[in-house]
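re: ur question from yesterday

yeah so i grabbed the chain u mentioned. its 486 aa long if i counted rite. heres the sequnce exactly as i have it in my notes:
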Amino acid sequence: MAPSRLWITLGIGFWAAALSGCGVNVRKTEIAEPPTPPAQSRKVPIRFGELQARLRRGDVIGGYVIGFTCMGPYDPVTWTSGRTMMDREDVADLFHEEMSAAGYDVAGNPNRLFEAGEDEQRAELVVSAQVVDVKMNICRKMGIWLIQSAIIGEDVEASVKVDWTVYSRLERRMVLRATTWGYHGGGDATEDGRILALEQAFASAIANLAADRRFAAVGFTSDDGPSTLPALETGGGIAMPPPVPAASIPAVPAASPAHAGLARGGLDDTARLQTVRLATRSPFTTPIQDHVEAVTGATVLVATGTGHGSGVLVSRDGLLLTNHHVVGESDRVRVTLADGTALTGKVERRHKPRDVALVRIEGRGLPALPVRTQPLSVSEDVYVVGAPLEERLRGTVTRGIVSAMRRDRLTGLELIQADASIQGGNSGGPLVDARGNLAGLTVSARVMPGGDASTGLNFFIPIADALDRLRLDTGNLDSAAASPQP
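ran it thru and got these structure tokens back, copy pasting raw so excuse formatting
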């Protein structure tokens, strides 16, 4: 019995040596250690993008043999574009696992059951992969009886070379190209050995990208410091600050009746949030035609990488309003001013039920709109400014009248109905009165069944409620702006 066991042991050892020496040359690559993120750095949200293969169908990528010792001769293995060779969703799962383990902030968690798409929207960097080389040696290992029914499985040694492209959705440009190798050394024979080996080799290539110092330089950026504004959480609640000594906590004003019910329900605890005073400009007192450039100049384009909306500057020091559904879960967005200047905006507050968000950009003396908090009246003339359908159409002005005051049938929140034309891309832009003072934000429209054509039933968020939900204060407005048009 002892000689038989020795023969089997030597046979397995000899097979392993033969597998690494026959077939094709598989590149052995160690997994590098990821760098330590700099202190006080910000994790830039990333996600996996596209997967491509720069290999032609029929290219020889390896060798294949069936036997007990796997000594050869090897038959060729060729590349195909089928699922058995590579699957984008599987690679995306590997990307999330490896990058998260290395400390990166990966958007689009595949284990998230709900709102996975919303989480993916917050990614600022998109990482795409192009497979440029695959090598594998496959041994379909048989049992000691050397019959087809005694096949144990496939033992595969594989390597993969990947070219990576990192694209900034905010800057709209490629910020990095990198190349990494990954390797899987085989081991136990399994039924899906070649698929497992290729996935493990790809996981190693991803891990080596995570360890690339140039990639770390774009994945971890310098912290821009704490926000100057207390934050609203995504669902509309308050992001509570770190605990402070009791003696330093200021008294919290009692909730107003308008907020009391919401505070009790736990949906919107805005009464506890510090109110911020906006640096607004004096109201317009003459018809909008006298200063329409100032109105369009205060309207901005807001983009996240998945689409665009509009927004409006409400303070001269860089605070602007838009819709929550425009910024989604993004922490940063691309803001384009009327003169074409593109800036990075930081989402400071958001209120999902009211569908409003507050964004900050760097700047002083910006062309903000004066705010009218006095409610509009039915039949008043109003104007809408925004970027309907295409970004190049930013600054488009349309005219209509206030048709009615409505309440959202789902939230019960007040809406302004007007017939001024809006399209996709207008969301978050300003609704102004006949003088050009900000009275609302574009939010939604009814469209014709089976198409995208507008019905003229368009809806807007009253600006007073938008400011109230975000705890923003304009101070005492001039009576000319607060009064309806003559």
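noticed a couple things. The longest helix spans residues 2-21. also The CA atoms of residues 377 and 402 lie 7 Å apart.
anyway ttyl
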